[in-house]
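A quick aside before the break. I want you to see a complete sequence-to-structure record at least once, exactly as it would be stored in a machine-readable document. Don't worry about memorizing anything.
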Amino acid sequence: MSVDENAASTQSVSGSRDEEYLLTEGEAQLATVLALMTGFSQGCCAVHRAPMAQRVAEQLVRLADGLDGGERSGDMRHFLQRLGQRWAHVAQLLARPEPEPVASASRFDEEFSNPQPHWHHSPETLQ
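That is the input. The structure line, written in tokens, reads:
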């Protein structure tokens, strides 16, 4: 094995360890939501976008209801509920078989049906 191959192998192994975390259940739920949001924004397949948005909405409602065991203020619960409603609306719009001819809806569909390149990429693996 050459020096370059050995360095790349070592970097790969240490890089995978950088993505391992010990989280509480509430933190893991939040990490799940953030990973789903990242996948939604960087996803390449339009067929997966509506289910991902629906899953984000469900996880946000779960966080708002405290089903992860976390205590939240009233304002935070309200914020998470509203955010969950917005993501549920996104999921409904993307799940429609045909977009309605409303100008704002078609602009919305165009915005979310074409993934955009980002400067920051998500990790290759998630725990």
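Two observations worth writing down. The chain has a mean pLDDT of 76. The two ends are 30 Å apart (CA to CA). We'll return to this after the break.
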